[in-house]
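Table S5 (text form). Sequence records supplied for joint modeling of the four-component complex.
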Amino acid sequence: MFAKACPSRHTLEHVTGRWGGLTMGVLVDGPLRFNELRRRVDGISEKMLSQTLQALERDGLVHREAQPTNPPRVDYSLTPLGRETAERLLALIHHLEARMPEVLEAQQAYDTR
Amino acid sequence: MFAKACPSRHTLEHVTGRWGGLTMGVLVDGPLRFNELRRRVDGISEKMLSQTLQALERDGLVHREAQPTNPPRVDYSLTPLGRETAERLLALIHHLEARMPEVLEAQQAYDTR
DNA sequence: CTGTATCCCGATCGATACTG
DNA sequence: CAGTATCGATCGGGATACAG
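The corresponding structure-token record, covering 226 residues in total, follows.
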């Protein structure tokens, strides 16, 4: 599990990285287009959103569906695997948010010491 | 949940960052000393282990107990909050590892396309 | 609208040496 | 043993411009 070369570490980093989790989190509610995603993931740049989506698509967590229309329209959604993964990730996030009072208290105690 | 300024994002990054999760993962099995941790978290440097532990301790996820002996002995362990957090994180990691065949298959398909 | 390409800066991280 | 200090190299990531 903690071997350096373990291939799951790469995927784990995509999911838990700075933008991966947030991106999957907003996709849980349903498919979104590129610029909708960009607006909902607070602070992400075009470049990072593009890179994040490519990594998640390559890992089979996100499905990309491009309509050959003009102007182009591309919908991103979670695959079944992506949805299962997002659920576990959200369980972690929600747990952390629920416990933030404890965390903040611990930080206060640490800093004053 | 996805606000840029949300304080839980900082803690989330400590937990899901490159070393935070791995460090908490090895601590689930019980308390460990500094160099034991260093050996078990494959590839981590002294500096990063030190920084990681300080961040997790400040967040109230890891407990640090120093014995005033010579040579010094310091034990690191998970707090109850840290344990609950680690469980959810491990649920994510184990899920991902169990599905790695699917992930690798998706990557193959993506790359050949 | 949906991206890609380029530049560039600062943060991150590893290696090394050193201290208590 | 348990860290801290310092120095480079690397890399993530933002801004901008551009393409289909």
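Note: Residues 33-35, 46-47, 49-50, 66, 70-74 of chain A lie near DNA strand C (CB under 10 Å from a C1').
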